[in-house]
Specification:
By secondary structure, this protein is mainly α. 79% of the residues lie in helices and 0% in strands. It folds into 2 domains: 1-59, Homeodomain-like (Arc Repressor Mutant, subunit A, Orthogonal Bundle), CATH 1.10.10.60; 63-202, Tetracycline Repressor, domain 2 (Orthogonal Bundle), CATH 1.10.357.
């Protein structure tokens, strides 16, 4: 009875998603070269080939682009970290693999990582973006709790929730050093040191 409405509705939803992705892709390209402050919405819509009114249907402001990019990256980070941890054969390798996976995804967003991290400087974005990161924080804190229960973590006084935020923050800082500030130190060295530091701080037994 309702079949005739289903295909047009699905097609319309697909078009809307395509337009949103096209706008976000164009925005990312311009943000990567100009930064958030210098980027103009008129430049974005010209690159995306849409009307300015269409932009506002999907993004109420330039700041909402930061939210969209943060959400996009955090979803990919979460998926890759879960996958990496699931494949690990020991708790120590789970810590290393999880940090590596997050670092690599952040590297894929290296062109706009400074824009994504501008959320810390925009008060109204902090709570929203922190909420997006909550599944990532929760996954890491749950992993730490499992390590405490299994005896793989010997630092029994560790606070899993605080430690999870510190691990995420440390990984982001290392990614910033490599992909935003373009330090002369190889990214592999930063990644190795972050993983070693976290394992030592948690007193991972194996």
């Amino acid at each position: 009875m309702f079949e005739k409405w289903m295909v047009p509705m699905a097609t319309e939803i697909g078009h809307k998603l395509d337009r949103r992705e096209a706008i976000l892709k164009a925005a990312r390209e311009i943000l990567a070269t100009k930064g958030l402050e210098a980027t103009k919405i008129s430049d974005i819509v010209a690159r995306a080939g849409v009307a300015q009114g269409t932009f506002y249907l999907y993004f109420p402001s330039k700041s909402s682009l930061v939210i969209a990019l943060t959400e996009q990256m955090s979803i990919q980070v979460m998926a890759r970290v879960q996958e990496a941890v699931a494949r690990s054969e020991s708790f120590a390798s789970a810590i290393t693999s999880g940090i590596t996976a997050a670092f690599e995804v952040m590297g894929l967003y290296g062109d706009v990582l400074d824009v994504i991290h501008s959320r810390f400087a925009i008060e109204e974005l902090r709570a929203l973006c922190d909420e997006m990161y909550q599944p990532y924080y929760s996954f890491i804190s749950d992993l730490i709790r499992q390590g405490l229960q299994s005896g793989d973590i010997l630092a029994h006084d560790v606070n899993p929730d605080i430690a999870a935020r510190l691990i995420v923050g440390l990984t982001e800082h290392a990614a910033n050093e490599c992909y935003v500030f373009h330090t002369q130190t190889p990214s592999e060295a930063f990644l190795s040191e972050v993983a070693r530091f976290v394992r030592a701080a948690l007193e991972v037994s194996r």
